[in-house]
Write a structure and sequence with these properties.
β18 and β19 form a beta hairpin. The protein is of the alpha+beta class. It has three domains: about 270 residues, 2-Layer Sandwich (BirA Bifunctional Protein, domain 2), CATH 3.30.930.10; about 100 residues, Anticodon-binding domain (Rossmann fold, 3-Layer(aba) Sandwich); about 70 residues, Translation Initiation Factor IF3 (2-Layer Sandwich), CATH 3.30.110.30. The strands form five sheets. Strands 3, 7, 8, 9, 10, 11, 14, 20, 21, 22 and 23 form an eleven-stranded mixed sheet that branches. The protein is built from 14 helices and 23 strands. The longest helix has 26 residues. The chain is globular.
Length: about 475
């Protein structure tokens, strides 16, 4: 039934319901029997694998290697870094029994891996020769998100990667933090066609235990900001409690310098929200499980034989060019039904081949992102498909970037701030260095400092909250 009726609400009228219907009906994911958990279906997992493959290549090129960590962490380990653990404690799932027997030390289902990884790093690292250590883990994390869950955006278990590196000095570690954020930005913009704004988190919003956090943010169509990824300079805040030391070339022991960083399947949620429309998904070509769908259209057996033959030939040529392509030759369904179904699934390019097309030695291109159609000669078709997919990506990125720019405002007063916030804007506003002002803005408006860009310094304005001299002009928004 869901396939027949498609998405039943407009994106502009009920964004939350539109999002959920799009995820479920496009068959990216489904709800699991346990509240707060989702199941990734093959199309959803394919998108994650595409992102994983792209990131893995970049990680390998910059000297990182993948490892694996277990899910269970002893409570005694978590409490070694008290501030960090306190930040996660309300979200931790605990295992207290093994079979019918009580466990002496409670085991946490891993909310994040710092404490576990750094206990091990302290065993592995002895001297400067062991550094830098650059390890990435592809795994799941579990955090008790029971109330306001939403597929890909807020679930109790989620797929992610978390990188952890150890260095001989702060300069090398801080370069790692910056390089990783740039690597993330490149991946999100070049694979998902989502423009992002990068910079630093405020002291209030930084990762628990970090010296500072760099972040990558984007604005969703409902006016809320989505944190797309973070990279943390941990300094020696973890190496000291975990006794993570190394002997330098003079055999003098020093505490190491560390970083951690990660992105999750939240990126898929951002992709759905930024590009989707009232008909469902709109997939960027570089991560689409199927990039091209071919629809044969015929009304007689004679037409059927010819059209299926040419459809198969085009499919094979596109596959040879490494295009992910499929022919939809399901006979029990009408072309119109197929059009609607593949549009809901967001396939970037549809190729229609009917009897009249065959007579003219052409096909019809139907683009998902702008729904434009035109005729294309069969001769040289592969090259045009490759070019078209790149053009679709560039168009999608440009459209999203224009929307982000149009919905970014600059204000100088608190009244202006509140007015723009109700319009669903990302807002540049001056603020002083008193943390209380940031806290009060959050309490009164639900908006927080999303990102402090590199050019955010502003000492010539007045703080929108207290009217004292400002120090920075960061970007505020309500967030997920």
């Amino acid at each position: 039934m869901g396939k027949e009726i498609g998405v039943t609400v407009k994106k502009s009228e009920d964004f939350s319901e539109w999002y959920t219907q799009t995820v479920i009906k496009s068959e990216l994911a489904d709800y699991a029997p346990v509240k707060g958990l989702i199941v990734l279906r093959p199309d959803g997992y394919s998108i994650w694998e595409s992102l994983k493959s792209s990131l893995d290549k970049k990680f390998a090129d910059t000297g990182h290697r993948n490892g694996f960590l277990p899910t269970l962490i002893p409570e005694s380990l978590l409490t070694k870094e008290k501030d960090h653990f306190a930040g996660f404690n309300p979200e931790v799932f605990w295992v207290t029994k093994s079979g019918d027997g009580e466990l002496g030390d409670r085991l946490a289902l891993r909310p994040t891996s710092e404490t576990l990884a750094y206990t091990l790093f302290a065993k592995w690292i002895r001297s400067w020769r062991d550094l830098p250590l650059k390890i990435n883990f592809w795994n799941t994390a579990l955090r008790a998100e029971i109330k306001a869950t939403k597929p890909f955006l807020r679930t109790s278990e989620f797929l992610w990667q978390e990188g952890h590196t150890v260095h001989v000095n702060s300069e090398e570690a801080e370069k790692e933090v910056t390089d990783i954020l740039e690597l993330y930005k490149k991946t999100v913009e070049e694979e998902l066609a989502i423009p992002v704004i990068t910079g630093k988190k405020s002291e209030k919003e930084k990762f628990v235990g970090a010296v500072y956090t760099l972040t990558m943010e984007s604005l969703m169509p409902d006016g809320k900001a989505l944190q797309m990824g973070t990279s943390h300079f941990l300094g020696q805040n973890f190496s000291k409690p975990f006794e993570l030391k190394y002997a330098d070339k003079e055999n003098v022991e020093s505490y190491a310098w560390q970083t951690s960083w990660g992105v999750s399947w939240r990126l898929i949620g951002g992709m759905i929200m930024v590009h989707g429309d009232d008909r469902g998904l709109v997939l960027p070509p570089r991560v689409a499980p199927i990039q091209v769908i071919i629809i044969p259209i015929y009304y007689s057996d004679e037409d059927k034989e010819k059209i299926e033959k040419i459809s198969k030939e085009i499919e094979e040529k596109l596959k040879d060019a490494k295009i992910r392509v499929q022919v939809d030759n399901r006979e029990q369904l009408t072309p119109g039904f197929k059009f609607n179904e593949w549009e809901m699934k967001g396939i970037p390019l549809r190729i229609e081949i009917g009897p009249k097309d065959l007579e003219k030695n052409q096909v019809t291109f139907a683009r998902r992102h702008n729904r434009q159609k035109d005729d294309q000669a069969i001769t040289g078709l592969v090259e045009r498909v490759v070019s078209e997919l790149d053009k679709i990506h560039n168009d999608m990125f440009s459209d999203a970037k224009k929307i982000l720019e149009d919905r970014t405002s600059e204000v100088n007063t608190y009244d202006e701030f509140k007015t723009e916030l109700e319009k669903g804007r990302l807002i540049k506003a001056p603020i002083c260095d008193n943390p209380k002002c940031e806290e009060e803005i959050k309490e009164e408006t639900s908006a927080d400092v999303r990102v402090i860009t590199n050019d955010a310094k502003d000492t010539s304005s007045k703080c929108i909250k207290c009217s004292d001299q400002s120090t920075i002009r960061p970007l505020f928004a309500r967030g997920y």
